[in-house]
Design goal:
Helix content: 40-55%
Strand content: 5-15%
Number of helices: 17
Number of domains: 1
Number of strands: 8
CATH architecture: Alpha-Beta Barrel
Length: 338
């Protein structure tokens, strides 16, 4: 087992579905609480926030944690800790969601206040590039149940800032699919694409395969979760033919109660069907499993061989938004990893 774990950590890979706010460990939350709360929370109180049994409970916990991300220094701290964790797992590139929709709402829809926060995030990213050799792109994530108008503010902020910050690579729609699908955001996706932003979308996590079809219909280039595609043979064929990358998050799906166990997650079925699947951790601090552990669980729970794990790493680089030259360099490194 130790040799497999070592191989996984030596394997260069990308993480493509990771929420910054979901990487904040209880110890960091205590540190943030000491900065901002009149009565700072204890470690036991912080750990209690991370215990939940369903998707609604997870959303409540996520809100409780993001409450303590207030100023640029808080975001810089959270981002740097995240990058240290990624580097330790052999992640060489990450594309990270920032919940700009939450930040906008909490600041009374004033996204001018977001720019100093983003400067803090950029300081952490630049430090990680220098010290860890880790490349990172940001994806501005709107929250689908905060209305189309609110999503428009987020996407247009990404369009406005991208010429000054090439690290802003794309946009996405997180939040509760049960409250809002993808169709209402069609015009916003078209506007973002015209501005050169890449298009991601959470779909089929708590909803049926029709939600994935809807996400594809508005131009989504990558689909996060895609859990329910397994229910639709023709959708699986379409995803394969079009080479649509899937950002899979098995432990996340188990912890939020939408999948019974890692062993029963459709990861193996999708992989064997020839889909472009990638393994990701989503919110590792909340779900207790980082991306290296997801690779290990793929091996122990679904029988992925070392060569199949290598293929998953290859998929992660190919599905990334990296330039072709960078992809070629990392693919060569993956091929030679032992």
């Amino acid at each position: 087992m130790r040799d497999v774990e070592g191989f996984i950590r030596r394997l260069p890979k990308a993480e493509l579905h990771l929420h910054l706010e979901g990487t904040i460990l209880p110890a960091t939350l205590v540190e943030l609480s000491a900065r901002h709360d009149d009565r700072p929370m204890t470690l036991a109180e912080a750990e209690a926030l991370y215990r939940f049994s369903d998707f609604s409970g997870f959303l409540d916990a996520f809100k409780a944690v993001t409450r303590l991300l207030i100023g640029p220094e808080d975001y810089e701290l959270a981002a740097w800790r995240m990058m240290e964790q990624l580097g330790a797992q052999g992640v060489v590139h990450a594309e990270v969601y920032i919940s700009v929709g939450v930040i906008s709402l909490w600041r009374n829809h004033d996204l001018q206040a977001f720019e100093p926060i983003f400067a803090g995030l950029e300081r952490a990213r630049e430090r990680a590039e220098r010290e860890l050799g880790l490349s990172l792109y940001w994806i501005f994530d709107a929250v689908r149940h905060f209305t189309v108008q609110e999503a428009g503010r987020v996407f247009r902020k990404a369009i406005e800032m991208r010429p000054h910050y090439p690290s802003i690579i794309g946009i996405g729609l997180g939040g509760d699919e049960r409250q809002a699908g993808s169709e209402p955001f069609r015009a916003l996706y078209a506007e973002a694409a015209k501005a050169g932003l890449r298009l991601t979308n959470h779909a089929g996590e708590t909803t049926g395969p029709e939600a994935i079809r809807e996400a594809l219909s508005i131009g989504s280039e990558r689909i996060g979760h895609a859990l329910s595609a397994v229910k639709d043979f023709y959708l699986i064929q379409d995803l394969k033919e079009r080479g649509i990358p899937l950002e899979l998050n098995p432990t996340s799906n188990v912890r939020t109660g939408v999948c019974p166990s890692f062993a029963k997650h459709p990861l193996r079925r999708y992989f064997d069907a020839g889909l472009m699947v990638t393994l990701n951790s989503d919110d590792p601090a909340f779900f207790g499993s980082d991306v290296a552990n997801e690779y290990l669980l793929a091996h122990t729970e679904q029988g992925f061989t070392l060569e199949e794990l290598r293929q998953l790493a290859t998929n992660s680089i190919r599905a990334s938004f990296l330039p072709s030259a960078a992809k070629t360099a990392w693919l060569s490194r993956i091929e030679s990893a032992q």
